[in-house]
Amino acid sequence: MGEREPTALEAVQGEVAALRPVYRDGAGDGTEIILRSGERLWQPKRIKAVRTELAHLYGVDLVAVRRRYGAYLERVSSVPLPFGPRLILVPLRLRLPRCRGDASQGYISYHDIKELRSGASPPFRSLVVLASGVEVPVLSSRRVVLQHLSAARLVEERYLSQNGWKAPADERRWTEYLSALVHELRAHYPL
């Protein structure tokens, strides 16, 4: 049997910094994949399909991950998705949908965020700057994005601990961690 050609996503799976739902003239609804280098790739698939394909490439069961970490964070939506020790995807609102059923949520790799700024161009309220320098506008306020980053940090600690990459964290409730994490994130991502 001959070797099959890798899919576009498979060829860059270890370099994903962000997945963004975008509308493209003449092509409709699709996904922009932003790589750690800053390069941008277009996929003519909706973001859910790209996210699912990436999860399969990493061997991740999205339903189980959402259930496990959602219960840990005591939430059912906007659960950060750990695909590996270097890829924790933070769900953020990255576009205004044109039609019912179109996604507004995209994903940014927790480890690829360099800076968080307030006051992007309306309707966007904040701006995530990736390590590559690429700026990703976010519809949510800086405060809301910081809450999502705090949740991603908690998920990362739990994920690493459960997979033997780090000593188990204290068994305190995540709400006890939140104030310390917000303080740390504010210091790391200044106004």
Question: Could you explain the architecture of this structure?
Answer:
The chain has helices spanning 8-12, 47-58, 62-73, 142-162, 174-188, and strands at residues 16-24, 28-35, 40-43, 81-84, 87-93, 105-109, 113-118, 126-130, 135-138. The protein is α+β, with helices and mostly antiparallel strands and 191 residues long. The protein has one domain (13-188). It has a six-stranded antiparallel beta sheet. It has a three-stranded antiparallel beta sheet with strand order 7-8-9, with helices on one face. The longest helix is centred in the C-terminal third of the chain and has 21 residues, at 142-162. It starts with 7 loop residues before the first helix and ends with a helix. The model is unreliable at 167-174 (pLDDT under 50).
Indicate the topology:
Elements: H1 8-12, E1 16-24, E2 28-35, E3 40-43, H2 47-58, H3 62-73, E4 81-84, E5 87-93, E6 105-109, E7 113-118, E8 126-130, E9 135-138, H4 142-162, H5 174-188
Antiparallel strand pairs: 1-2, 1-6, 2-3, 4-5, 5-6, 7-8, 8-9
Helix pairs in contact: 4-5
Short account of what is shown:
The chain has about 190 residues and is of the alpha+beta class.
